[in-house]
Design a protein that fits this description.
It is built from 15 helices and 16 strands. The chain is an alpha+beta fold. It folds into 3 domains: about 110 residues; about 210 residues, endopeptidase fold (from Nostoc punctiforme) (Alpha-Beta Complex); about 55 residues, no CATH class. The chain has a 6-stranded antiparallel sheet, sandwiched between helices. Strand 3 and strand 4 form a beta hairpin. It is elongated and about 75 Å long.
């Protein structure tokens, strides 16, 4: 039997040889592509190669165009077939009121004999998929439009076509890669770290042990901010994707509150109650901290951001408590969660995301879980239109009737005073910033600030926090050889918060800001 070192060397030689073959294929028109035959190879050989070629982002379909009666022909280059054309033909083969249609797809010039392209086709009323292995013309039959609204929509706006850009094999591999992001395992944690390193440029430097701090609550004050980053399990996977699209290096937040007797409490939107529901809660510090230290299996990393003394001096503790107690027990703010991220038509979507894909994902979820869809976006979209009770299909049609578009609709700023069916809607960061607003931290421009438009990065970038390290508590980063401008109180890896404590509030702050990775550049006063 070969030794482990010789086996490793042999494997590395194979990888070098494989990538050499790929480079030669690009220069020669061979009848197959090495990537197409990887499944035939042993798993220990094929999967590491696939891991280097694809990533979870490849799971996302790329919008190539819409075909309608006005936009008759769409052309694009596929992952397998280099020349592709689509057009739609309206007919009434069933004799129904609005008839149906045939989507024609002509594919040609494959890069190999063994590749195939996978497509998703969507309208606000249906979503389907197909794959093409052979050159030539293919058809997708729609026997009947659902109703007049779908007929009019397809006639004017068309059927949206999405390409799974990694191809069939790449899509399967991307599924394999995205799955661990949500698993509560070491594999899942490493996958989340790898994703953030690759797509955001994040670093994960290990801190000296112990990886938690013995906090003196006497040094903690009302209004002090807690930034939390989870890197494994269900919430770890969700936060990873949230960080990627928003540029935030934390995925959850909470706020400190002290009562008249000096007892410390934590206010948090997204606290799980005994029924498994995510609600707004005011929890004793000892209970909250014990959970984070001993029971939270998402491996939370937590930074404590104390307010600057001048900011703390104007913090109205009574008003903050009144607001927090008025919100306690209300549901987490799912209604407006995604709208803090989307501010612009094209500047908030890391490729291959775009508004077409967002609409299609919403369409799928609206069919699968209509109650979930109503909670996540239908009510919020109705608010933006000034309508009530429209489902997603009706919303898209109504938007078209008004001469607007879905991507424009998504950019309309959320308003803090909007009341949803279950009350005011505040995500974790909106809850903290609304409390700041009530406590007087936004001063005279409070009425021109919509905190539901802020991401977590927008929040920790506010110039509200301590900027003199000599005033930080003595226990702050006491075991770390790198002195951060804030206090990391838990976590194996050092937390970084780019842009921390750098921006003064301004009118209509964060309502028109792009957020494109990996630099996440934002123009002044956006």
């Amino acid at each position: 039997m070969a030794s482990s070192s010789s086996s490793s060397s042999l494997f590395r030689c194979f990888l070098h040889f494989f990538f050499f073959i790929i480079s030669q294929v690009q220069a020669a028109n061979l009848p197959f592509h090495p990537r197409d035959v990887l499944p035939l190879l042993p798993r220990q050989v094929s999967w590491p190669v696939l891991n280097s070629l694809n990533s979870p982002v490849d799971l996302l379909p790329s919008f190539v165009g819409s075909v309608s009666s006005s936009n008759r022909i769409v052309n694009w280059k596929g992952a397998c077939f280099y020349e592709n054309t689509a057009w739609v033909e309206f007919h009434n083969k069933t004799g129904s009121e609005f008839g149906g249609g045939t989507l024609h797809i002509k594919v040609s010039y494959p890069h190999s004999w063994t590749c195939m392209d996978l497509y998703v086709f969507a309208t606000p009323y249906r979503i389907t998929w197909d794959y093409y292995f052979l050159s030539g013309e293919h058809t997708l039959e729609i026997k009947e439009w659902q109703d007049k609204a779908e007929y009019e929509y397809v006639k004017n706006r068309g059927i949206s076509i999405f390409l799974m850009q990694a191809g069939m094999l790449g899509t399967l591999q991307a599924l394999w890669d995205v799955f661990p992001l949500f698993t509560n395992t070491g594999w899942g944690e490493n996958s989340n770290i790898g994703f953030l390193e690759k797509h955001m440029g994040a670093t994960f430097e290990e801190r000296p042990q112990p990886w938690f701090t013995n906090i003196s609550v006497d040094d903690v004050h009302s209004g002090d901010f807690l930034a939390i980053s989870k890197i494994r399990g269900r919430w770890g996977g969700f936060e990873t994707l949230e960080k990627w699209v928003s540029g935030a290096y934390a995925g959850h937040t909470a706020v400190c509150l002290k009562d008249s007797e000096g007892k410390l409490w934590i206010g948090e939107s997204g606290h799980e109650n005994e029924k498994g529901e995510d609600i707004i809660a005011i929890v004793p510090w000892d209970e909250w901290w014990d959970f984070e230290l001993n029971k939270d299996d998402s491996n939370p990393h937590i930074a404590y951001l104390p307010l600057h003394p001048d900011v703390r001096a104007k913090f109205n503790e009574t008003a903050a408590w009144e607001y927090a107690l008025s919100m306690a027990g209300k549901p987490y703010g799912y209604h407006n969660m995604i709208f803090s991220w989307i501010d612009t038509i094209g500047g908030n979507y890391p490729p291959p995301l775009d508004a077409h894909l967002v609409a299609s994902v919403m369409t799928v979820w609206s069919k699968i879980q209509p109650e979930y869809a109503a909670n996540m976006w239908n009510e919020a979209l109705n608010k933006r239109l000034g309508t009530q009770g429209l489902n997603l299909s009706d919303i898209l049609v109504e938007t078209e009737k008004r001469g607007s578009s879905f991507d424009e609709l998504l950019t309309i700023p959320e308003q803090d005073n909007w009341i949803y069916s279950d009350g005011k809607s505040t995500s974790c960061i909106a809850f903290v910033l609304e409390l700041y607003k009530e406590a007087g931290l936004f001063d005279l421009i409070a009425d021109s600030i919509q905190v539901t438009e802020f991401t977590i990065k927008d929040a920790y970038s506010l110039k509200f926090f301590e900027n003199d390290s000599s005033r930080l508590p003595k226990w702050c980063n006491d075991a770390d050889n790198v002195k951060l401008p804030y206090c990391q109180i838990k976590g194996k890896y050092r937390m970084e918060l780019p842009g921390y404590n750098s921006m003064d509030p301004y009118v209509h702050m964060n309502e028109r800001c792009p957020s494109m990775p990996p630099k996440y550049f934002r123009p002044q006063n956006c």
